[in-house]
Amino acid sequence: MKRSIWLRLAPYLFTLGFFALWEAACRALSISAFVLPPPSAIWTALVQYQKPLYTNAFHTLWMTSAGFALSILFGLAVGLLVGSSRLLRAGLNPLLVGFNAIPKVAVVPILVLWFGVGWLPPVLTAFVISFFPIVVNVATGLATIEPETEDVLKALGASRLDIMTKVGIPRSLPYFFGALKVSITLAYVGSVIGEQNASNLGIGNLITRASADFNVPLVFAALIVLAVLGIFLVAVVDFVENRMTGWAKRSQMAGG
Amino acid sequence: MTAFVELNEVTHVYGGGDGPPAVEGLSLKVREGEFAAIVGPSGCGKSTLMKLATGLQKPKAGLVAVAGQRVAEPIKITGMAFQNPVLLPWRTTLENLLLPLEVVQPHRQRLRANKAEYVARAEALLEKVGLKGMGAKYPWELSGGMQQRASLCRSLIHEPKLLMLDEPFGALDAFTREELWCVIRDLQAERAVTVILVTHDLREAVFLADRVFCMSARPGKITAEREIGFARPRDLEITYTPEFAEIVHELRGHIRQARAAA
Ligand SMILES: Nc1ncnc2c1ncn2[C@@H]1O[C@H](COP(=O)(O)OP(=O)(O)OP(=O)(O)O)[C@@H](O)[C@H]1O
Ligand SMILES: [Mg+2]
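Predict the joint structure of the above. Result:
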């Protein structure tokens, strides 16, 4: 009973403790606010700039969601294709791995060249940075069906489509949602990178401008907003995942 | 004798290359309605035989025929169960049982409209194997033995002509195993289905089968064949008779020879 209360409180206590330590360190070592502003100064900035922070955060959220939605669509489609065909898997593997290895920051200038400064580069950066984990995970879920399960179905005369819909897709759902958790954070990083380099709006752009003005507390305030938004997005994905694939967790608990 | 399942001089190489064959010159005939058991050293090609007979693997040479038809692709009259019950964890036990019906014709077309009838059929089957009322449970809520029973039900739900069992009781304790022997015995008697059972347990083979085939070490072929004459229905008590022990002993000799030859 007591233990479970502590468990529930732990996330809040640890977060509070982290900021308390931060504040104490800044004061004790009298660190300049230009180097590392204490949480109190960041809080002041948060309050002072709440309006631009709010509108820009909203914009970033939009960019991230759009990019993320694209990578779900695209990632699912490619993942299903790659997972269901050994030929495609063999053929596309080097392309996908190579593409994933390209630092996405390096792609932003190209996107600007193609689409100019605006909302497209952040969305596309979010997309290109976040679709890979989805592809890989969905493909893995499909490609690792137990051979016996496949035999049972094939011996009944099941077509490949049958096996895919009856087993492959439900089975790859936990992999898919696992990938979403990684992807959403990546998409978020992607849209901020895009905004920093190729947008007049969004938290990324706000950070660029604030650091040009040496407004360090505002930079940190923006970072805090990013962190909170990130936690929120992951929580949303977590929630959906639990609703959709609770069986995977419960069956693992039963197995282990 | 007309054979229901026939393998004639079958050779199979995995991967289709020129590697060492898994089975070579394998011949075997199983009559319709017969209960055949296959025993042999580990890795000799028993599971391979199952895959060949059901068309899941194509032989490199030789002929495979089931019900008078040459097997060229997976045949659709089989039910299969393995040592690993492979139930789908996102489906309840009942939904797992219905899976074959979602695939096999004519059930596939009739399932939606006649759901109640099929559910009743599945529940009757569950009751027969001692899983009455467990249909709503998920597989991971069942014990290993219960999962294996459910897996047996799944292999039978579409009333297959041919039942392939690959060490289905291998992972179970002795008591559960003997209980399931009786379940299989009764189901087979009731439906007159042809059964091919792969097992490592010679007592299991002798108790259940009409005929036991012994295989050599890899590359596997049939080295001995033994009719088991005990009258049916058989009681578990016969496993403690001297006649029974003698047959088990004889088969053990064959296996030991096969292992020594390897
Ligand atoms: N998918 C596969 N690819 C390549 N080789 C295989 C494959 N499956 C089986 N083999 C090989 O074929 C031989 C026969 O395998 P099989 O699974 O039929 O043996 P088994 O008699 O069922 O063994 P066990 O009693 O241990 O289950 C083995 O030597 C094995 O290594
Ligand atoms: Mg085997």
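The first strand of chain B starts at residue 5 and ends at 12.
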